[in-house]
Structure to design on (598 residues):
């Protein structure tokens, strides 16, 4: 499928995109409040992006029959965590990237110290947003969501995955290690979006388990595809430097399996993710459509 | 008062010190769990230190008649936030310090990328610890504590103070701006320890207000004294590079007021902090003793 054939996001997704932008805008400190430069840079760090984690959270809520308002806090918290992780990952001591979403990274647009503080502030704000009392969610459910988010984001989740990624640079690592790296680095937060939606919507244990498994497989498929796209797409389409993984001699699915086998594995894993939603029958549509949009993306 | 005249910590404080070390040890991931290097570095970042924020929390709990176990989670969360902030503040792009508590800073003992991730992981763990269900604290009170901590640590609190500090380097700033800088950078977290103790112990609004005001004044006194000590103590006693503020042409209380006036202001502010506890009568002793230990420290 070429770029021109990618299906336009359906109305539901477009609504969610507008909604998460509104929610983020309300959660972020105003750019003219003290310290203004930090607050402006926090907003800069949260501009654009695919909002995949928020979309997944809203779509999972729709599958469970929840109101979008019930998902605002977890969707916003996830996007704040994701935004902070990109700001810190792009730092010179980490991946050293100048370009993100087609624009200068935060440490390029501002400076390194500000980028470190922006990440710290966004991470802190994520927990602030999720700790705010919600009319439709019990305090006990909110505490559980805060624990899930902290586990997904911390040293046994996303931050741990990034640490393993840095250790693994310039060496071939076994496929199982690569999978465990990505399960933490990107998978944990994607899966967390599904788990938070289940917690916010009061899902049954079976429903929560199915959504969590969908999240695990989707996160894996997403990462395999990310590696494939890094090999095949142009820098212009990606909005970040293309072929960077290969240049850094990072282990990737294409480098370990070959390009075609990696592409086939991505398709197979997307199919497994869809199958995990069988429990929901027709109600699974919002998540299935979103999975399709992700599978047929070009960046 | 010279170093040899400093009163030994009373038994209560020594007990609290042992207790917070045990609690931190239990909260931090084991150093042999994956990713082992990150987890080891997280523990390295939390070693030693005065544990001032934890001691304040336990002592405030004692003033309110609470059991120490009720204060374990907030005391631990505060020390994790404090430890993360030191790791990030010491980074080359920030204060660029090689020495902390007399030993190499995390980015010197490990590397810069690890130091960034250690800070992120400790910050995340702080919220994880405070979100863990507590037998003696209601879920609603815990959510309130999480909000207080996020506000004290984030862009309107500690991180915002650090941003203002960086903006203010190599320039004279007015005394009011210096005070607002420190109220955020160090004051917010110290005050938060008192507020969390009040929330955990179910204090009355009057008690909470008095503790919060004590925290505000103590944090201010502590910072003025810190500036004074940076001018007068030796690098060996401080455990960090002495005279660094002056070398960086930072505005400090001594540089704005003169050394003797700054010293007098510190003493006066400590006295005001003590006066804020009048409400508690004799029960204020644990906090009064701790304030004394802080006032007569040499580093």
């Amino acid at each position: 499928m070429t770029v021109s054939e990618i299906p336009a996001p359906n109305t539901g997704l477009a609504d969610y995109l507008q909604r998460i932008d509104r929610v983020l805008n309300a959660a972020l400190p105003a750019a003219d409040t003290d310290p203004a430069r930090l607050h402006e840079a926090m907003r800069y760090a949260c501009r654009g992006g695919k909002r995949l984690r928020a979309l997944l959270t809203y779509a999972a809520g729709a599958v469970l029959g929840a109101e979008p308002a019930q998902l605002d806090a977890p969707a916003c918290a996830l996007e704040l965590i994701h935004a902070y992780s990109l700001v810190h990952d792009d730092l010179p001591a980490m991946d050293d990237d100048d370009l993100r979403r087609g624009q200068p990274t935060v440490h390029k647009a501002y400076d390194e110290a500000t980028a470190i503080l922006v990440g710290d502030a966004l991470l802190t704000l994520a927990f602030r947003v999720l700790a705010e009392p919600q009319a439709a969610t019990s305090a006990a459910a909110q505490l559980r969501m805060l624990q899930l988010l902290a586990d997904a984001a911390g040293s046994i989740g996303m931050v741990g995955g990034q640490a393993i990624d840095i250790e693994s640079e310039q060496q071939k690592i076994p496929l199982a290690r690569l999978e465990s790296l990505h399960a933490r680095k990107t998978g944990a937060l994607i899966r967390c979006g599904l788990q938070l939606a289940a917690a916010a919507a009061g899902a049954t244990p079976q429903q929560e388990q199915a959504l969590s498994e969908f999240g695990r497989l989707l996160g894996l498929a997403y990462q395999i595809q990310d590696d494939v796209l890094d090999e095949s797409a142009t820098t212009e389409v990606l909005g970040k430097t293309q072929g960077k993984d290969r240049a850094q001699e990072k282990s990737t699915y294409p480098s370990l399996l070959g390009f075609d086998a990696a592409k086939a594995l991505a398709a197979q894993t997307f199919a497994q993710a869809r199958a995990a939603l069988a429990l929901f029958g027709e109600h699974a549509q919002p998540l299935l459509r979103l999975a399709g949009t992700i599978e047929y993306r070009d960046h």
Notes: Residues 1-10 of chain B have pLDDT under 50 and may be disordered. The first helix of chain B runs from residue 11 to 27. The beta strands of chain B are 99-100, 103-104.
